[in-house]
Amino acid sequence: MQSVRYYIFALMICVISGCVSLVSVNSRIEEAQRYLETLRGVSGGIGMKRAAYPPEFRQAEEKLGDARTRLKEGNRKQADSDAEQAIELSQKALKKIIHGPLKEEAAGLKKEIEKKGEDTSLKALLLKLDKIMDYANAVETGLKVMFEDGVSICQQYIQVKETVKKNIVRRVEASEVSFGVGKYKISDLKGKRSLDKIVGDVITAKTEFVRQFQGSAMISIKTTGYTDMQPFNEDVGALVEKCGRAFSQKESGRQALNQCLSRLRAETIGQYISDEILKRDSALRIKKEAVGRGEEMPPGVASSSSSNNDPGRRICIVDISISSAD
Questions:
Q1: CB atoms within 10 A of CB 144
Q2: Which of 73, 86, 104, 302 could form a disulfide with 63 if both were Cys (CB 3.0 to 4.6 A apart)?
Q3: pTM to 2 decimals?
Q4: pLDDT, tens digit, for every residue of 275-319?
Q5: Closest CA to 322 of 198, 180, 208
Q6: Cα separation of 217 and 320, whole Å?
């Protein structure tokens, strides 16, 4: 009975004096350390230099150091309080990062993608960037930031940034890859070495992406084909049937056929690249899109190049991006 009374008395003293258990304060310090490590990681991932970190970051580091010092001195209550303040300061620092550097970088990255034009494989990232900036705007206008949610937004941006960084764009010239006149099937494809080089680059970039983000990757392949202005002098019945269109005028028929032919060739090149990637990693998710621009002037080709049979116009632009499949 006396021991029970002593325990109750000791407990009352502990409550009155603000006693904190060693396990509790150690847990709080570990939590503060995780917050700081996470904050340091997302800040670096965004591209911030330490000198640009919000002042709350350094204050959080100092408070965490104070907490460890107080714990060594046996002052658990003060150690717990310092660790809690370190956590609060980390949250404030994250909020400033989101509606400051993160928002600015996301806006700049969006403009960079938009400048690439409508044929870029990165277009799907624009919606993600809009959501990130919407969150940043909400934070700026007073949204309470849950640390985990804020970190998730930062990590989403870091992945988007890395996807843009690893964007592979190759201009496949007629001198490298070619088809016979009016041909478009894989069996008609000549000069696959340059496409195999693209496949190797994709596998390397994918491996780096998965290593960095610890998840599965998705490959987006966008191929855009262009043709010259050469007319179809031989039997084009099979091509007309494949295109599924009726042509009433010779001139418009030629242009429409070349537009269709450029799309079919772009599809073939995209399919070849996809097949070769899957031979090396059959578990990958791949999304393909092919566009035919026909007789439109390809980017980088002088508009004065108007020869019907100009090989400089027979190109395919391959645009490949790697993103998270999760």
A1: 9
A2: 86
A3: 0.82
A4: 999 999 998 999 999 999 998 988 877 765 556 677 778 899 999
A5: 208
A6: 13
Q: What angle do CA 183, 184, 189 make, to 5 degrees?
A: 95
Rounded to whole angstroms, the Cα distance separating 90 from 106 reads 22
Label residue 13 by pLDDT band (50, 70, 90): very low
pLDDT range class, residue 2, cuts 50, 70, 90 = low
| Closest of 211, 323, 224, 222 to residue 274, by C-alpha | 222
Of 172, 294, 158, 149, the residue nearest 221 (C-alpha): 172
Look up residue 215 and give its two tokens: 């998840």
- Checking if the pLDDT of 187 tops 70, the result is yes
pLDDT tens for 80-131 read 999 999 999 999 999 999 999 999 999 999 999 999 999 999 999 999 999 9
Exposed e or buried b per residue across 111-143, where buried means at least 16 C-beta atoms within 10 angstroms of its C-beta: eebeeeeebbbbbbbeebbeebbebbeebeeeb
- Domains, in order of start, for the chain: 2-163 (no CATH), 167-324 (3.30.1330)
d(CA 50, CA 44): 8
Which of these, 36, 29, 33, lies nearest to 53 by C-alpha position? 36
Any idea which residue has 């800040």 for tokens? 43
d(CA 305, CA 131): 43
The tokens of 280 are what?
A: 């090396």
